[in-house]
Description:
The chain is an alpha+beta fold. It has a six-stranded antiparallel sheet, with no helix packed on it. Strands 3, 4, 5, 7, 10 and 12 form a six-stranded antiparallel sheet that branches. It is elongated, with a radius of gyration of 22 Å. Strand 1 and strand 2 (40-42) form a beta hairpin. It is built from two helices and twelve strands, in the order αββββββββββββα. Residues 3-19 and 192-204 have low confidence and may be disordered. The chain has one domain.
Amino acid sequence: MRRATRLSALAALACLSPLARxxxxxxxxxxxxxxxxxxxxxxxxxxxxPNDSKIDFNFGAVPVFVGDGTGxxxxxxxxxxxxxxxxxPAVGAIGMVINYTVFEKGRIGWTETVEDDGGNVVGxxxxxxxxxxxxxxxxxxFSFNGVLNxxxxxxxxxxxxxxxxxxxDAGNPTTSIAAVGLVEQNLVPEPTTIxxxxxxLAALAARRRKKA
Length: 212
């Protein structure tokens, strides 16, 4: 019986070990911004987190900023990347953080679309941030937090995120501001996969307690 228990434990650990070793694989295809009336820049990014499950795009390094003496009245920023789970749990959602600033006629609109390997859309999110010149808008620097849920968990997928910044009809020069500082994307593993791993660990613990 002890031998069978040990073999079961080793088998369970063998199943879990690839999850502990391999990291998520990222392929960033595009990460840049184009300004109006002129100018462009590349947006740097950093991959981190447990098993490389997070990517940060540092818009502030460019900076992605229009209005208020910049000579730029609008900007379009585009992020395009692919993810391969590489033996990690399938991904069922993306956690999103956006740090931004709007003032007066500054405004920011954004969209995010997730597609599977066949180009089928499995998730869409949109939003906007408005300065005080617009109904419901507020001046200041803020942090938006949200989650984009997929229609099904995926092992490979593509994400496109776009930002549209402008200062409305404020003209140039203007004291209006629209700026994005940081965009963070966190991969959220499929809940059923995580639950299965937790069940396996609980079973191992129960066997150990019984043996003791």
